[in-house]
Design brief:
The protein has a five-stranded parallel sheet with strand order 3-2-1-4-5, with helices on both faces. The protein has one domain: Rossmann fold (3-Layer(aba) Sandwich), CATH 3.40.50.620. The chain has 166 residues and is of the alpha/beta class. The protein is globular, with a radius of gyration of 15 Å. The longest helix has 14 residues. It is built from seven helices and five strands. Strand 2, helix 2 and strand 3 form a beta-alpha-beta unit. 44% of the residues lie in helices and 16% in strands.
């Protein structure tokens, strides 16, 4: 069975991400979940560290009995060739890369990778979730319960509320 690469920032992991992961695994035997912008943390766009995002992913995978995955990091290079070179060097074996970001898909395709666009789920995205957290809205319904619990355990909502909007 093929191996898929799923690239995202997961700030935070939400229900749409989980649905995409499950759908990817229907077509592939294994998934590599790549945490993008891995060097970023404690900003409004990237409030959680790579380690925190990895822990969220692990908790959700464990709760959903998904074992055929691994997590890796992809920092931003602001240079497409260097970024794709990092992927080639660090993530050696995958058959197709999935993303919902047109820029990422085009960059990967230009650099010789096979790509597939994920189907986005309207109304669920990390930006909206962070905005709801900041405003004290009902965000927990948009994330797996393990993510809501994790964010609560690290005072993540308070962290987001204290961050300035860029």
């Amino acid at each position: 069975m093929p191996t898929a690469l799923f690239i995202g920032r997961f700030q935070p992991l939400h229900n749409a991400h989980l649905k995409v992961i499950k759908n990817i695994l229907k077509e592939n035997g294994r998934i590599i979940i790549a945490i993008g912008s891995s060097q970023e943390k404690h900003t409004m766009e990237n409030p959680f560290s790579t380690e925190e995002r990895g822990q969220m992913i692990d908790e959700v995978m464990k709760a959903n009995k998904i074992k055929n995955y691994e997590i890796t990091e992809i920092p931003d290079y602001f240079d497409d060739m260097k970024w794709c070179g990092h992927i080639k060097d660090r993530i050696k074996r995958f058959d197709v890369a999935y993303s919902g970001n047109n820029y990422v898909l085009n960059c990967l395709k230009r650099n010789g990778f096979s790509v597939k666009r994920i189907k986005l789920i309207e109304g669920i995205n990390s930006t909206k979730i962070r905005q709801l957290i900041k405003a004290g809205g009902n965000w927990k319904r948009l994330v797996p319960k393990e993510v809501a619990k994790f964010i609560g355990g690290i005072n993540g909502a308070e962290r987001i509320k204290s961050l300035k909007i860029n």
